[in-house]
Structures are given as C-alpha cells and as structure tokens.
Amino acid sequence: MISTKSQSSYKGLDNSLNNRGSYWITTFGCQMNKADSERMAGILQEMGYQEADNELNADLVLYNTCTIRDNAEQKVYSYLGRQVLRKKTTPNLKLIVAGCVAQQEGESLLRRVPELDLVMGPQHANRLETLLSQVDNGQQVIATEEHQILEDLTTARRDSEICGWVNIIYGCNERCTYCVVPSVRGKEQSRKPLSIKKEIEDLAKKGFKEITLLGQNIDAYGRDLPGISASGRRENTLTDLLYYIHDIPGIERIRFATSHPRYFTNRLIEACATLPKICEHFHIPFQSGNNEVLKRMSRGYTIEKYKRIIYQIRTLIPEASVSSDVIVAFPGETEAQFKNTLDVVKEIGFDQVNTAAYSPRPNTPSATWSNQIPEEIKVARLRELNLLVETTAKERNSRYLNKVEEVLAEKLNPKDSNQLMGRTRTNRLTFFQKQSARDYSYKPGDLVKVRINQIRPFSLTGLPIE
Ligand code: SF4
Prior knowledge:
- The chain is α/β, with parallel strands linked by helices and 466 residues long.
- It has 3 domains: 2-143, 3-Layer(aba) Sandwich (Rossmann fold); 163-399, Alpha-Beta Horseshoe (pyruvate-formate lyase- activating enzyme), CATH 3.80.30.20; 401-464, CATH 2.40.50.140.
- It is 32% helix and 23% strand.
- It has helices spanning 31-47, 70-89, 100-105, 107-112, 128-136, 181-185, 193-205, 238-245, 266-274, 291-296, 303-316, 335-348, 375-397, and strands spanning 2-3, 21-27, 49-51, 60-65, 94-99, 118-120, 141-143, 163-167, 169-170, 189-190, 210-214, 253-257, 281-283, 321-328, 352-357, 404-413, 416-424, 429-433, 447-455, 459-464.
- Strands 1, 2, 3, 4, 5, 6 and 7 form a 7-stranded mixed beta sheet that branches.
- It is globular.
- Bound molecules: iron/sulfur cluster.
- Residues 172, 174, 176, 179, 181-182, 216-217, 260 line the site of iron/sulfur cluster.
C-alpha cells in the first residue's frame, strides 16, 4: 500500500486558476496499480485538483484497490470507514473506489457503502475526468463494463523523477485457477509500439534514467497486435519491442515484469544478453515445485521447463538475478508436494521470492474446490518457506561482498539523510554514503560505482568509489 505524497507533481501544471480542491490517492497492490494511480493523479491535476497533505483533509479521496488475496481486499473497507464518517460532516467530499475490488464488486460495493460517488474498474482509469463530470452532475457512477483502454494523453504524476513505470499490456488471457486478475482486469490489450516509444522518449526528455515495462503476463505482449513475418514468426513480441525502444537517448536502464514461464523464449534471453541497457534481473513466478499442483493451477508448464529457463539465463547471463512468486497450500497440496517447492527454492537459489499462502478468490475455479488446506497448515508452510527464502537470499547476496556494483541513485534514505538509496542492475536495493571520500556529493539520478561492504538478505550497503 502506498499513500502518495510526491515532490514532482506540480511542475508545469499551474492550476491555480481552476482550483477544484484537493485530492488524495491511496494505492494497494501491484506495480500495475501504481502506474494506474500515477495516471489518475495526472488527470486530477490537469482538472485543477491539488494534492492534499493528508487523507483526512482531501476534498476527493480515491482508493485504488487490490483483490489478489482476501486480506488485500478487506483493507479498503477499513479505510472507507473513516471517510464515510467524514462525509457526514463534509457532504461535498468525493469518495472513489477504483481498481480490482471495484471491478470485482461493482454494484454490490454501492449497496455496502452507499456514500460512494464512483466505482470504477482498472480499464476505466484513463476515463476518470469523464466519470467525475457525471459525479459533478449529481450522479452516483459505476464503470465496470469491458472497455477498450484508450491511449492516455494526460501527464502521469509520477512518484519518482528517475524511474518510470510504462504499461505495455493490460489484462490477461491466462486462466490460472487461483487468479482473480483475468476477471478484474479483462482480456489482454497491448499498446502500440509507437505509443510506448513516445511515452519513453517523453520520460527521457524529463530526465528519467530507468524504465520498467509492465504487464501481468508481459511475454504475451503483442499477441493481440497484427504482424506475422514472412517466416511465420509473430512480430511485435516483447523481444521486438526491447530492440525497438533500446536506443532511446537518455534512458540508461530497461527492466520488465512480470514474465510467464509458459511463453518465455530463448530469443528473449539472447536479446537481454546482447542489449546493454537491459538489466540483468528476471522476475519469473514458478508458483509451485510440483507438476501435479502446477497442472491443477493451469499454469501450462512443468518445473523441468522452468529450471531449463533459469539454466539458460545463467548460461548466457551468469551474473543475472532471478526473483519469483510462490503460493503455498494450494488446495490439495500434500506435504510432499510442498517439499518439492522448498527443493526448487534451494536448487535454484533465488535472489528474492514473493511468497503467499493460497487465498480463495471470487470467480476463480479453485475457490470452490473441496480439498482446501486448513489455516494452521497454511501458516506453518508459509513460515517454513519464508525462512528458507531469507537464508537463500542472504547466500545469494554474499556474492556482492567487496565487489563494485553500479547503483542508480533513486532518492535519499528516509532513515539516514547522509545516505542515498537505489538499485544495482540486478535489482538489489543498495544504501550508500552520498559523500565520496574526496567530498564529491552524489544525487538522485547519478549512476554510482559502489563497493559493497555489508550484505543483508534483501539489501546491500556500500561506499561510493571515485
Ligand atoms: S498469468 Fe495467471 S497468475 Fe498471472 S495474472 Fe494471468 S491468470 Fe493471473
């Protein structure tokens, strides 16, 4: 969950003339939601809203929600509770729920929270101004119908001035039996390569140094775009896009997430090994180490195929870091099948693994299955996995000790203003003194050579070298 308070927002957007009041956006969930919130904030600012300094002072409050697990969904209701109380004394307060809970609940959310003014699904993020004009005409609005996502012309209000999220494909056509994303984000919609390139060129002109291409299943990019080559190969793939945007001046680093093992290609790995700006980090969820469980998840690959991908990456890019996502206690998962997952984590040695216990979600096949795992077993397996993940990550991080890494300084360390924080090309969070031995002062946006002198499971510390 991120409560947005940005430094960059007001540059170039003088709205003192049509001051519509203040807004506050709270974002739950994934990077796709963060990118949507940045665009919605941009729309509000262009409409004349200014960012509030506190959620409880804002004239318009927007919760951009997540429903990937039950606890994520429940969070928004506690936040809404205090705004509903405010609305009793501040009747002009505009209350908006956006994102995946809005899409999942739609009309029933209005029945549950009748004080809401607008309930809008993720596909409608770019239509916020239109929807708000209906609210300003006194309507209570629900926007959850399937919708062709329009190219967004507004200036996103980005949280960083160094690193930018760039959506390249919305939605997902897969049918993983535990996942709510297809039912709340809809079918795949790829953006045109030229629109993506223009957005990145615009970011480069504004001084951004790094971009992350985003998609729920990024390897599916372009499947819905025309273009088959003479050899019958699909053009407009993620790999083609990386070549197409690689040489944009000013951008130093390119990242992408989230990959899908079913569609991950050697051609993509070769491109990443060849193109200097593509960072040596891959985020490829494997979810379970057991083929029977993967089958019931409808993931569409075997663990052997997954290992071959990692082997190929480490053959062509030995220094690469690999992170993943894992779900434990999927319905019917036996102790032995869980052990298979632990074995894969040990064998591959991930730099980071995002872990979760299975959470039955509405409109997903596995939620209705009878072989649900009891809560205490879920908790025990998650604890055991998290311990292993931490141990493995620390072992992996030991390879950086006394090594010099290039770190892109992103911002001051909020806990120590003598330090900057940023990430290595392998996506390791790194803290370092902003003052060098010769009193040179580094700043956000600088690419700094840092000698690592301290390692932790999920971050590094070091000293800048001239
Ligand atoms: S690939 Fe599967 S897990 Fe990922 S968003 Fe699509 S349906 Fe969900």
